[in-house]
Amino acid sequence: MDHLFLSDVHLGAFDDRSNRHLEQKIIALIQYCTEHSIRLHILGDLFDYWMEYPGDVPELGMELLDTLEQYNRSVYPATYILGNHDNWDRGYFTELGFGVSSDYYLFEADENRFFLHHGDGLSDPAYQLPRPLYHRIIRSIWFTRLYQALLPPDAGLHMMKSFSSMSREKTGSEPERLNQWSKNLLNSSTFDFVLSGHDHIARKETFPSGTYINPGAFFKDYTVAYYTNNEIKLVKWSADDYKLIPLEDK
Fold first, then answer.
1. Most buried of the four, 12, 149, 161, 242, by CB within 10 Å?
2. Residues 217-240: pLDDT tens digits?
């Protein structure tokens, strides 16, 4: 089975027309993966802001989520690693058939071992990639309970959209942090591939002990990572041509 990795769609971040255009682009990609039985891995921040209240799910990307649910039921449960913009899931994504992780996900393909995470940091101290204090606070259960106690769903989502906009604008300035961390992990483990998103910079870094690849921000250039025949590469999704277009390594 081939594998496709995407990150940082940030659906909901833009005006209505742009959001709709972006949603249609990724829906076409999911349909392509369904038709070709490609296993899908979402490395976080599918949404620019997402917070479930008890009994209340954001009305954001419903057509996209319907398409993904169909994929999950008919092909394979898509991996969904929750990012720092869509971490506040109360079980809805699991109900839709995703394999959900709030930290990292490991799997093997063709005897290659993969380590997947979002990139903002890991809660397990053994991996020595601590989340910034701000991210640790807003991911904590006590913050979520206080936030939802003070703000009803509509106001809470409106406030989260503002926070997300500020956070997204600060992203993308430190690619070397994830490059070096991935190199160290590959050197000290038996993983062959490390993948993450978060910093919005598409690139492939090949080290003697393995490969780190970041598919970049889908909302910017429609880039994803594609694994087939023991090889992983950066590609671009062309919805107009309905195909994946190879890119030069970055």
1. 12
2. 999 999 999 999 999 999 999 999
On whether the pTM is more than 0.90, the answer is yes
**Token output for 164:** 């997300």
Residue 84 burial class via C-beta count within 10 angstroms: exposed 0-12, middle 13-18, buried 19 and up: buried
Domain ranges of the chain: 3-246
Angle separating helix axes 16-35 and 62-74, nearest 10 degrees: 10
Q: Which fold has domain 3-246?
A: Purple Acid Phosphatase; chain A, domain 2 (3.60.21)
At 90, give phi and psi (nearest 5°): -110, 20
Q: And the tokens for 19?
A: 């959001």
Q: Which tokens is 184 given?
A: 């160290």
Q: Over the stretch 128-159, which tens digit does the pLDDT of each residue have?
A: 999 989 888 888 899 999 999 999 999 998 88
70: nearest Cα among 107, 43, 33, 103? 33
Cross-sheet strand order for the sheet of 210-214: 104-109, 112-117, 193-195, 210-214, 203-207
